[in-house]
Amino acid sequence: MWRRRAVGWLIVSFMVLSFLLGRLIQLQLVSTEHFTDREINLLESSVRQRSQEMIIDAGRGNFLDRSGKPMTYENKSVLILFPFLAKMDWDIKKISEITGASEYSLRYSVEKAKEPFAFGSPEPIQLSYDQMEEINALKIPGVFAVEKKYSRAEKPASQLIGITGQNQKVLNERYPDKDLSSDTMIGITGMEKSFDEFLLPEGASKLVYHVDGTGGPLFGIDVKYVEPANPFYPVNIKTTLDYDLQMVAEKLADQHGIKKGGIVLLDIETNSVLAMVSRPSIDKDNPFGEESRGTVNYMVKQQIMGSVFKTVVAAAAIDHGLDDPQRQFDCSRKINGEPDLKYQHGMLNFTDSFARSCNNTFASIAKELKDINPDLLEEYAEKLSLIGPVSWQGDIYHFNDFKQLQEEEEGRVFLSEDAKKDSNFAGLTGIGQHEVRATPLAVANMMATIARGGNKEMVRAASEVEYKNSTSLIEFRKQKLEGETIAPYTAINLQRLLREVVINEDGTGRWFKDLPYEVAGKSGTGETGIMADGKQLHNKWFAGYFPYKDPKYALVAVNLEVTEDTGGVNPLFADIVKEIYNYNHKAETPPSGSADN
């Protein structure tokens, strides 16, 4: 009997030992980097338990403005202190004299610290270059003056640039062949996502101190500085944004109460984004909350555009002889022929109809264009780069059909072939209603296309990918959009019409007549069909370019889903033009006291 029990105990013991051995093999050899379904990296966790570290730079690439100014981060010269200082004598008096911080605050901060920290609360104190030199010359173990990279509290162009986060599952799916740490930050939205593979870190730059189980020194009091071996990484994405103009646009959007909508500012010569603002802003505490929708970049999402689309109708009318200056249109009637009790413009010719945005004129012309060719409105929308993706895309490096703005939507004119042939739908389409949609970015590009005389190009948001030493890895050169374009003659006539909107005494853009730059453009009010408190909501636009005779900027301001009697964007558009004028003439302003003798 005892032998059976002994054998049984031996079998049980062997099974337990086998299980423990198997578990040990799993922990030590098999699942060291992907333990459990949470993908825990045991090696990294072990290292963390045996060390204290201060990350100086996480190693992910960054975004710069067109002059090389950081958009997403700022470097701060700070004082780093390690907790083991509490257990040793160090020249706290000298550090106090250099920094101006009291000995008490330095000592208290070290004694309560459990890990290395940048001294100062709530913000770390910032050191001058001379202070950094003096502190580091003392060579006190555990005391360092370093330049540390901090993420900006308020990031400009946050929806365009996007956000990052940690997601082990997405990381593995996106980069199955890369050996990346489980805490690697990846791009979730915007250009952070588009350029993610370029921006992946080669490793962090950090100060590391090894400790025992009680937090005491393991190898004396030496602190090591660790940085990636490759001196060319991380790379930076040089955007086309102008940091100062971006900040001006952000400020004005908020001052003018844009709750949903935004601004697009393009450089016409390079066809690149100088500023892009989307509202609502990102909620840092809950970026993907359904209520805020702050991560959505509405400037690359298709919107109902209203009368801005009359620019397309006008282009087709010019080319097909429907713009006879002698012809008169009854602009006291709605598009269905009934009297218009709100707008009694009387009989207007084609030019005045465009300036005053007469619906009946452009609904009538759209129907006539439909009879000539049902595809004409779509063809001219494409010629003016209003539909289809307009942002930069192409083959680069080892990427086929790389897209700078992956979240950009395509615009449209009709949803069905039958709608193109229906007179009622054609009339509604002619005034930018029914199924007409375009992104604010595409509308800005249409204005830039007209200002350039009909040449349509892709819109760039980034000009190049730079190595860490500022040499170029990849350049995103100017690139034409495929497809037909409008003729120079058509472009010249559209330019004249867009200017008439401003200089006509009854034009919808007369607000801009006295601005420091001559503006040409088109207003738009799109009915959304969305009701709030018994009132229909509208999308309100002004899209244009300036200076009229020497075009440099294309600008779109749009306020989405506002009531008919609120939310106009003319004041916002005007203030942006003024600010750009002031910005460009700063350098020309002589300093006080510099008058000639």
Automatic annotation (TrEMBL):
This is Penicillin-binding protein. It is found in: Membrane. InterPro entries: Beta-lactam/transpept, Beta-lactam/transpept-like, PBP_dimer, PBP_dimer_sf, PCN-bd_Tpept. It comes from Sporosarcina globispora. Keywords: Membrane. GO terms for molecular function: penicillin binding; peptidoglycan L,D-transpeptidase activity. GO terms for biological process: cell wall organization. Residues 261-577 form the Penicillin-binding protein transpeptidase domain. GO terms for cellular component: plasma membrane. Belongs to the transpeptidase family. It comes from the Bacteria. Residues 56-212 form the Penicillin-binding protein dimerisation domain.
